[in-house]
Amino acid sequence: MALQVVTANRIGDGTVVYLTRVGGWSERITDGEVSRSDEERDTLMAVAQATAEIPEVVEPYLIDVVEEAGVIRPVRYREAIRAQGPPVHPAFGQQAEEG
Amino acid sequence: MYRYDEYDQTLVDERVRQFRGQVARRLAGELTEDEFKPLRLMNGLYLQLHAYMLRVAIPYGLLSAVQMRKLAHIARRYDRGYGHFTTRQNIQYNWPKLEDTPDILAELASVEMHAIQTSGNSFRNTTTDQYAGVAADEIEDPRVYCEIIRQWSTLHPEFSFLPRKFKIAVTGAPNDRAAVRLHDIGLIMRRGDAGETGFEVIVGGGQGRTPFVGPTIREFLPKKHLLSYLEAIMRVYNQLGRRDNLFKARIKILVHEVGAEKITEMVEEEWRHIKDGALDLPKEEVERIRAHFAPPPYETLAAAQPAFEEKKRADGAFATWADTNVAAHKVPGYAIVNLSLKPVGGIPGDATADQMDAVADLAEHYSFGEIRVTHEQNLVLGDVRRTDLHALWRKLRDIGMATPNLGLISDIIACPGLDYCGLANARSIPVAQRISNRFADLKRQHDIGELKIKISGCINACGHHHVGHIGILGLDRKGEEYYQITLGGSADQDAAIGKIVGPAFSSEAVVDAVETVVNTYVELRQNGERFVDTYRRVGKEPFKERLYAAA
Predict the structure, then answer these.
(1) Residue B342, pLDDT above cutoff 70
(2) According to the model, what pLDDT value does residue B412 have?
């Protein structure tokens, strides 16, 4: 079973966010709640869909991740770029926070 | 340039009010994303990888200085201090907030601008020659007809739900600077037997996953029939276009499947019913619109400008720029000036708010207050006195827009790619930057000569890779960025789709591969051949051999 987290874009400004362990949304993927089974995955998506209806976020979906020493990283580079910000603008997005 | 009448202004103002209400309902949760998405797309608002993206229409690429300042203001106040000029001669902002977009649209409406029909299955911005109205080689100013098409195609009730998006380009000159043969409809101004002007009509060109150079379906269409003929084409497409399959929905697929001859018959048959009717262009209306494009008050100047020639002799850098970025104007003593948005290592098409403000000032000072956006992602000041060129050049250097690289290897078209775009498979901008840096030596660029590199981050081909002399297409190969190289494409009057040269290259290898192609050309070229001439003479094999020799 691949590890997955739920991602979406925040409704107001489109910022990339991840569903967290406490049910809110964070800009840091490493705050994301990781699903390890079909049940966990369905639960996470149900929580995400509910917040999408508020509406807090737009179009939540699952992405594959790897977890190493407590750090979560996306498998696909598309998602790595979403998580970090545009590589051509290092001052924008999470990459700026993490230096 | 064209100025809004009360109908134009009312339409745009009403749309702002309507969209303000829609955004409020969306933020209040009264509209779902499924309901809201088509509404925001009708107003040019996309959701991309990191943020929303707002695409603003610049009709046929023509801007006033006042409008350019407004674009700068929007970049500064609502975005992150820059904008991106596109191959549809539009501008897009990469970081607008949803809640701000009604205010942005209201700001745009205050200067006769909007974002209507910059997305969706509708008519998109009609594009044209960036030298329209001033080109030395022009038959007639195409902007008059672009504006007529703009009015006809804006919220056209019969064509608001086309099978797919629809793009029209018009040129008034035989040297095609608007890629008209790569459009759903391309119009080329021609002279008829009696010397009267009309259009050659091309239908079914396009890029994307199935590229075609469009066939001509009518050699000569008298101008007064323009709208009825376009409407006939649209009716055939609207009825027969493939709504069942997104990938086959463009008119080029219909033309390809049915055949140009049969399409011509169908269009002519439809046209028979509607020609000489309400869509005939009334002479007074054409003249009313033409008056908006009347030439500015040019001074009477000598064609020879000794002061300009003297400056060129005295200053080699200025001479290089003048020989590369300045084009011939139809009026003696004037010149067309290209402002390069391709500095060494820069992002093709990006301009900061400060640069936009500076360009607006320069346009007012040197070029009757107008600016043009080119489909190759540069800017143009169309009406500069040759005696002012040296002063203008110095000021352009100060704002980083005097790189003398127009049409050279670093004058690259690149789509936003995976740095921004939700559809992309690979990044485009960094490849453009690395090529630009690799060939940073201007002497080398000038020695290589005309060479158009165009880069797309996916098969949708927004970066026009199919028609690059060297085209680069980004691929996702098992989770890694790979780049497929095509050779021999062309977007001009000799339009051609490039041919894939061989297996794709890794991101690491692609710039070396481009350099190998360039070096091969330099070794093979004869008697002043451009890259594309050499390619047409020798074909892809010599390039292929060199590229894959080690493999």
Answers:
(1) yes
(2) 98
